[in-house]
Amino acid sequence: MTYTHRHIIAGVSWFFGLPAVGISLLFSGLLPVDQSVGAATISLLWGAGLLGVFGSWAWQDAPQHGKSRYVALSFTMGWILLPFLVVFPYLLLTRGVKEGFASSLQWFCVVIGVLIFFVGVIPWLGRTFF
User: Fold this and answer.
1) What residue spans define the domains of the chain?
2) 85 within 8 A of 111, measured Cβ to Cβ
3) Model confidence pLDDT, tens digit, residues 50-82
């Protein structure tokens, strides 16, 4: 079994398994937290796990195709930014053209700030940990 097959199995298992087990435990009362807090925690763990599976696979796959592992790290970081980019069409649709454009411009400034931060952090991580 190749590492790609193992990561596909891990990804599918995580994709379906964590929500099934987590929600079952949450609604049965076996987790001692409020349902909204528990559901948010399960969602964050679920997203982080999927990000980890993709990052682990990409980290091993990139060098086999002659690319740097930092390319894999960049694309993995891109998954974190994807929810920010979905906001633009939503703002235009819900607020109209004028207010939507203004809100999108404000959100764009936030996204650019996050990108500038990550552009500075990735080389630092490379020097510090790799």
Assistant:
1) 1-67, 86-130
2) yes
3) 888 888 888 888 888 888 888 788 777 777 777
Work out the burial of residue 53: count CB atoms within 10 Å of its CB; fewer than 13 is exposed, 13-18 middle, 19 or more buried: buried
| Cα distance between residue 53 and residue 6, in whole Å | 10
List of residues 6+ apart from 51 with CB closer than 8 A: 76, 79, 80
> Which residue, chain included where needed, has tokens 């694309």?
75
Residues of the chain with pLDDT under 70: 83-87, 90, 94, 124-130
5, with CB counted inside 10 A (0-12, 13-18, 19+), is exposed
For residue 61, what are the CA distances in angstroms to 10, 32, 67, 71, 117? 16, 40, 9, 10, 26
pLDDT at 25: 86
